[in-house]
Amino acid sequence: MEFFGLVVAAVAIGGVASMIGVGGGVFMVPLLAFFFVPTTQVAVGTSLAAIVFNSLSSTLGYARHRAVDFRLGLWLLPTATGGAWLGAYLTNFISSAGLSIAFGLFLIYVALIMIGGKEPKEVAAWLRAKPKPKPDNPSASTAHGHVNKDETKAFSPLAAGLVGLIAGLASGFFGIGGGAVMVPAMTLLLGVDILRAVATSLFVMGPSALIGALQHYAQGNVRLEYALPLALGIVVGAQLGAYTATRVPKPFLRRLFGVVLLYSAFNMIWRGLTG
After folding, report:
1. Is residue 133 domain-resident?
2. Could you tell me the residue range of the domain that residue 57 belongs to?
3. How far is residue 136 from each of residues 133, 139, 141, 152, measured CA to CA in Å?
4. What pTM was computed for the model?
5. How crowded is residue 142: how many other Cβ atoms within 10 Å of its Cβ?
6. SS3 state at 77
């Protein structure tokens, strides 16, 4: 029954994550911590193991539309994977209560963005918005559902490495994919367009989540009996979410689950303070 229940929950998580543009860890960590595992560290490690499969599935979808900037991704990967390992390792030096409080505070950030009716990527786009000259052919970049390769801009390898490191640290420490950190950072600091930032973030997310999950596994923080049903459900849910995204009012969904996340955030903080 636990296996079936987690599969069903993960289908819902994958669907919502796909529709509202988050990685899924912000839902999986509280779910695991509240109902299935003894410590927040185990919830973080098990969540990362499931995120690996979600990343693979999503990356394949974006790659078909040529939206993934593999060149940028390869610059991000070394520091993102190193940061994920370091973030996972650092959970050895914080109590489960302390990690619960830190994760709860992070959830408040994500929840407030959702309650505002926006995704992290939309907030980044708003912050960067400025008047631009109208292009000669504004539809050229997305013709036939593909991203024009000519849109790729020069970026600083040092800045890319810094973005990867910060996102990797958040991934390994909190058990999230890192997209909530990586997408706004790529958009604000590297000047990457939103679609390419989202797709590239998902590409980088897989290897960094894998490294973080392996380190957590070495520390005894991964429960495979929970990671497997989560992985199965979240991959299916991601496909369903992509299919239904245009049929459900996304601002309403974001606000609804923002309230759910805010409730989870305060529960995580309360758990840390009283545990």
Report:
1. no
2. 2-128+149-274
3. 9, 9, 11, 18
4. 0.77
5. 14
6. helix
Q: Cβ-count burial of 191 within 10 angstroms (0-12 exposed, 13-18 middle, 19+ buried)?
A: middle
Start-to-end Cα distance in the chain: 28
Residues 6+ apart with CB under 8 A from 32: 42, 43, 46, 47, 226
Q: Report if residue 57 sits inside a domain.
A: yes
Q: What is the pLDDT of residues 87-123, one digit of tens each?
A: 999 999 999 899 999 988 988 987 887 677 555 555 5
Residues in contact with 82: Cβ distance below 8 Å, sequence separation at least 6, in sequence order: 165, 168, 211
d(CA 153, CA 175): 31
153: confidence class by pLDDT, cuts 50, 70, 90: low
Q: What is the DSSP letter of 148?
A: -
Q: What is the tens place of the pLDDT at every residue in 213-239?
A: 999 999 999 999 999 999 999 988 877
